[in-house]
């Protein structure tokens, strides 16, 4: 601390560079006991809260067919291990489809079915 510092009634040291950091502001103990609300928060929160079940279904749910909803319910009923096994199966299927596509593209290249027809003029 600086040599010319003094003590105030609250016991804080004042003087020198520490004066720039000192605040005599009295803060409340917790935001839970703050009596005032921020203006406009209640209205904003009411527009952002999820709608009640009595209203129409959400837009993303309205676009789904019954088969899609059944599939979502099936996935929702799986345990984490079962769901991971399902994901692994889908990854293996995607890999196998990629191999099949590469094989067919190579075959098409050798058979020259992917070339553009040459004009005779």
TrEMBL record:
<comment type="similarity">
    <text>Belongs to the lin-52 family.</text>
</comment>
<dbReference type="InterPro" id="IPR018737">
    <property type="entry name" value="DREAM_LIN52"/>
</dbReference>
<feature type="region of interest" description="Disordered">
    <location>
        <begin position="1"/>
        <end position="28"/>
    </location>
</feature>
<feature type="compositionally biased region" description="Polar residues">
    <location>
        <begin position="1"/>
        <end position="12"/>
    </location>
</feature>
<dbReference type="Pfam" id="PF10044">
    <property type="entry name" value="LIN52"/>
</dbReference>
<protein>
    <recommendedName>
        <fullName>Protein lin-52 homolog</fullName>
    </recommendedName>
</protein>
<dbReference type="GO" id="GO:0070176">
    <property type="term" value="C:DRM complex"/>
</dbReference>
<dbReference type="GO" id="GO:0006355">
    <property type="term" value="P:regulation of DNA-templated transcription"/>
</dbReference>
